[in-house]
Write a structure and sequence with these properties.
Blueprint lengths: L9 H10 L4 H12 L11 H10 L5 E8 L5 E8 L4 E7 L6 E3 L3 E3 L14 E4 L2 H14 L11 E4 L9 H12 L11 E5 L3 H7 L7 E5 L5 H7 L8 H15 L3 E7 L7 H11 L4 E7 L13 H13 L4 E3 L13 H7 L5
Parallel strand pairs: 4-7, 7-8, 8-9, 9-10, 10-11, 11-12
Antiparallel strand pairs: 1-2, 2-3, 3-4, 5-6
Helix pairs in contact: 1-2, 4-5, 6-8, 9-10
Bound molecules: S-adenosyl-L-homocysteine.
Length: about 350
Amino acid sequence: MKEILQDLTREEIFSLVERMGEKKFRAEQIYLGLMQGKKISALPVSSAFREKLLERFEDEPVKVVEKFSSSDGETEKFLFSLSDGNLIEGVFMRHDYGNSQCVSTQVGCRMGCKFCASTLGGLKRNLTAGEILAQVTTVNRLEGGNLKNRAVKNLVLMGSGEPFDNYENVVKFLKNVTAEGGINIGARNISLSTCGIVPEIYKFKDEGIPLTLAISLHAVTDEERRRTMPIAAKYSISEILKACSAYFEATGRRYIFEYTLITGENSDEDHARALAKLLKGRPCHVNLIKLNEVKERTLLSASDQEAQRFLKFLEEEGISATFRRSMGSDIGGACGQLRARFLGGERP
Ligand code: SAH
């Protein structure tokens, strides 16, 4: 695999261009071109310079293989291929308050959550910072955005992979995507979802990237959590809650708990009351999600009625909670489902 030019920061591009004996304004052209989602062969530089770049760097590290649109037109799902042939996926969602994109941080995942399709084949490899960034710049361009008027206003790191299992690359990506003068998506418009890798939460709070932290909780006791999430054997819910408090203290940002309702597992009244007790008085919000059933897994979603009751119990206890809209389920919108189907030879 060649190197990835999108891995470099603006400063690193400037020093590379200088070392290659080219003028400084070329560096700015390259940086802006990449941020606009262009491939190297489309950058506005001399063909000799382009050739030199292409000898060392991938022309287009993240290529769109296919795009699927949901029947209501609100969601688009992208299947991307990487330079080594690996596949990842991303989702673009239209909202009144600004469109969001869901990005992947790893090829596959090794966290092993029982309800999730991303983890079916284990972890293949980490994505580099540039491979994560190129998902955003490419989709922004394809959706008709540019650097002044972005089509992608919000980002969620909720695609395949565990962001805190790929810490260095994810932090570098976040620094590049929030940098002024580039695509410049503000930290306040970014959410990062983690299964709760506690030491990394402490480390991340001091990075100066005050994004919205979302914790995949999905259970109210450690014992129950261990049944669906292997990471629960390593970090307890109380350790996670302490880390969330430290995150709030450092950043002033309210945090989110994601809670996927799985029938017979975590969705009855006792669970709702216990969840409320656990979270009472915390500066947090609960995102309830109806399980997107994965055909390779046996877990079943709570019914609509059960889900509404769960929400009502939380509200009665004064907990701020909403349902996360399930978007694009007709096109394999849930984590890893599109890639899993594609690898299995099936078409959505
Ligand atoms: N690894 C990170 C981010 C990726 S998953 C994490 O664990 O948070 C993004 C969210 O979708 C997580 O809350 C995850 O638990 C949830 N999720 C995964 N598979 C799901 C499914 N089949 N149905 C509903 N939610 C799912």
